[in-house]
Amino acid sequence: MGAELEQLEIIADYINTHDRRMRYEGDPGVEILEGVNDLRSWLLEYGFIHDLDSVTEVDLTLARELRSSLRAAIPYNPHDPKDDDFQTLNRIAGQFRFFYRFGEMSDVMESVEEQGKGGLARLLILVFRLRENNLWSRLRVCTAADCQWVFVDRSRPGTGKWCSMKACGNRAKNKTYRERAKSMG
Ligand SMILES: [Zn+2]
């Protein structure tokens, strides 16, 4: 399972390219995919595209839409409106074409799309594989509203609520403690 969780880390990293951690009150977070070159570097880093592939503004818009719909599809996400029946995600996935190739050793699903869009299609294939292998539920978003960091839950029961027990977990506990102390006057 370890290697597959590493693959899930890629999806977490992708969703975290919109870093929602608040550094001050009202902080909108950090957009890492600011321009086409940012998306290009990200896709290249994880081998979703080749060196010579180009990435367009259309790909960038699609990439951001895909990203927010993947975030909404994280189980137990208290921050985003639930994507009922994966309507948004399905609408976006419907814009990609795939094909299935039989092989001697194993069969593979491949992207019909090329260039930047092909990279996003390969990312979707990875999502598909992870879901098929029941690993999707290990993808979590930190329940702290001022964090919302997406992480892979490696705990045995798989019920982690915070990206880090040390930081966000303790912060939440202290807050509860303070509120309880306050209400007790
Ligand atoms: Zn957190």
| Strand order, sheet with most strands | 1-2
Overall spatial form: globular
Reading the helices and strands in chain order gives HEEHHHEEHEEH
Terminal-residue CA separation: 49 Å
Average pLDDT score: 92
Organism: Paenibacillus glucanolyticus
Domain Zinc finger CGNR: 138-180
Protein name: Zinc finger CGNR domain-containing protein
Pfam families: ABATE, zf-CGNR
Structure write-up:
Helix 3 runs antiparallel to helix 4. The mean pLDDT is 92. The protein has 185 residues and is mainly alpha-helical. It has helices spanning 2-15, 36-45, 57-72, 87-93, 115-132, 165-183, and strands at residues 18-19, 30-31, 98-101, 108-111, 139-141, 150-152. The strands form three sheets. A two-stranded antiparallel ribbon has the order 1-2. It has a two-stranded antiparallel ribbon with strand order 3-4. It has a two-stranded antiparallel sheet with strand order 5-6. The protein is built from six helices and six strands; from the N terminus they run αββαααββαββα. The longest helix is centred in the last third of the chain and has 19 residues, at 165-183. Helix content is 45%, strand content 10%. It has one domain (2-137). Zinc ion binds next to loops.
